[in-house]
């Protein structure tokens, strides 16, 4: 895996070669990563793997025609061949009036800030094995757990670098760590599965394997002997580990590509009240040690904190340069890309701000409802906003979580659901997308 400086050297040489061959402009991206992962099951080592990979993606423009190629061979000869192939392909590609690099005047010119996403370390395979075993052992020790899908632990490092023919050349690197456990409780047809995991940028920020395993085992046992419910309308409360899906549905509907194609249920919602007053949804690319923190986007534009929803109002679209040109607007620093193809748009560290009601009071005020801990399927229609997903969790009776519930479907329309969301005050930053406990009244539940 290359250093940032070495990667930028390869990229800038490739861009110079593209210009010599007749490209009007070009950009190139390097992505390198290496990780070690350990898997155990029933107290026995089941899998150990070390993966290392690096790849360069090159995008060239000849007039309004463009082409992209990628190569995992980073030798000078291989990259020269990739450049020649890309330029030849671009000459034959159809014209695209909106194609092109990000505007040069918007590119990041400062030194990228340190986001504290690399602890400089690496965990040995032996230590990872001990962590995976500790997590699984703690889960299996919970009374009622009868089987295991395994425990795992991982340690990795990644390097990203981007250069453009308009003068941008920057990169960054980061570390990542994770521990998980997944176990089964019960016997025969009454078995139930659940899991727990934690990820972090710093090894010292990881929760202990024992606490992760205990949580997985406890969750699995609590799901035993679930009931089914009749079809009805009722309040639904979403646990934070599943509530982030609401934000994912929002982001998918407000990217520049979806708006330009007119395939979004929020097509006419810009500047309007999409959520209740007081709701804020914020993208924070500069959060220290954030799982998706980054100083610049996939086109070299600086990133910045942004309230996507402010006081319930949708403040703007998330756009890379191509969709911004199509919409007659400026790109927003949300370009996301891999080594192949053009950028799309996406967020970094996304969260909904905490509300003022405690989780206990939120649940305590519900006479009869559903607390959702797991979602199944991807039943979201991005064009209409119709929402229908399988769910399981716990029945809420007289303000208390009681018996487990399984095999139900919850449905509604995202426009109505967004306006009805009430956040609790228990926001924690555990994932790339974080929400507090969320309550939505009047959802349709389809049961037995």
Automatic annotation (TrEMBL):
Report the leader peptide range: none
Q: What is this protein called?
A: TldD/PmbA family protein
Where does the record place the Metalloprotease TldD/E N-terminal domain?
A: 26-90
What residue stretches are annotated with the Metalloprotease TldD/E central domain? 121-224
Similarity annotation: Belongs to the peptidase U62 family.
Q: Name one GO biological process term.
A: proteolysis
Gene Ontology cellular component terms for the protein in this record: cytosol
Q: Which organism is it from?
A: Glacieibacterium arshaanense
Q: What PANTHER family does the entry give?
A: METALLOPROTEASE PMBA
Starting at the broadest rank, the lineage of the source organism is:
Bacteria, Pseudomonadati, Pseudomonadota, Alphaproteobacteria, Sphingomonadales
Metalloprotease TldD/E C-terminal domain sequence ranges: 231-447
GO MF terms held by the record:
metallopeptidase activity
